[in-house]
Fold GntR-family regulatory protein.
Amino acid sequence: MPMDPAELADRLGRWSAGRGPLYLLLAARLRRLVDEGELPPGTALPPDRAFASALAVGRGTVVAAYDQLRLEGRIVRRQGSGTRVAGPPRPGPRDTTGAPVFLHLLEPRDDDVILLACAAPTAPPAMLLTAYERALSRLATVTNDIGYHPSGHRLLRRAVADHYTRRGVPTGPEQVLVTNGGQQALSLLARTLVEPGGTVLVEAPTYPGALEAFHEQSAAVRTLPVGLDGFEAATRTPGPRPKLAYVVSTHHNPTGGVLPALPRRRLAAAADAADVPLIDDEVLAHLAFPGQDTPPPLAAFGETVISVGSLSKSVWGGLRIGWIRAARPVIDRLARLRAVHDLGGNLPAQLAAAELLPHVETLCQDLAADRRARHDHLRAELARRLPRWQAPAVTGGQTLWVRLPHGDGDSFAQTALRHGVAVLPGSGLDASGGSGEFIRIHFLADPGTLTKAVRRLATAWRSYGGGHDRGAPAPRSMAI
């Protein structure tokens, strides 16, 4: 059976951002996937028309790229048999896996593409540099410590525990596991709590990295609306009980909503009653705009809540420090698995994080007004140049969830990339198969870059066939 065109388009990454004819750029990227084994011998490639539609190019571009690779002997094309990577199919399971939908957007590039897809601070703050100076001074005094701490250094575990206690969730260091970022935390939880085929309840849409972690475990992902509305009924349906549920309760990724206190209480109570572990992703929890209060953490309302945190969005993505806050038996299980795969994280980074964590809320507050100003600037530029796009305001976080007036996010993302802007199509964030008409873009860039990006998006939209935007209704608000 041929590969899904959208899946192959995701693997291609920013294939069209270079110089030269599109068919040669496409052939070059496909050639690399073949040569590196990401497309093994025997792989059936998508039909011309379907692949062209997913890439938002003419069929002739795909035909010419395929013909180029056929001449090189890398693929075989036969009437009635389709297009395949040259060579006999490999027996047994594939030894490569599909890269996450957002992986190609994280790799550094020298091109002129403006990245509005993956959001994180673009430089370490001065506070982090000071924290490292203090950490190195402490490191100079270390004796009788070989540096392996699979559960995390005691100072950082204590700092994370105090962080939750200050927020109304009494926590001890034994309830904390330090991880190499929030993504590793999600992967460890998936491996520990979900066996292949086990059901995981997620929001639609949701954070794509969580979906990747669950899919990697071959979980049966079941979707509910944002806020996990309908959770209680879902746990009572006939069949196996869900093994896990996942929610982003504060500054939801991607819609930006904040789950109010009463629904939090009901959701946590329902999870407790059903004995279903409920992961609350708090990576964005401290990114409220000025004057915006957020409810207490979901963990304040239920015993089965597992909190995941990270410093990647509030401080800097290069500081690979995350954590899991849960009941001690869960932490002990996670620590045993962590020790199998990773004997411990970077100790200087953990010592720096321990210095920094007590001040992270102050850091976020100091930068909140600037984030809101950039949010407002991006929305104003979109309203001016693309008035039919619906880009509802949010009260915090880093991204806008934008609804296109027609077409689909997957094909438009390819068009936008060819015009020098990377956006994240909504389909990759929705396990239900919905959200195809959405894209996610961030507002962390400086105002000049955001203006330039919207100018390029408007040009891409006209090329895509969306040039008749005048006289459109104002964007609607979206909330959980």
Summary: The longest helix spans residues 360-385.
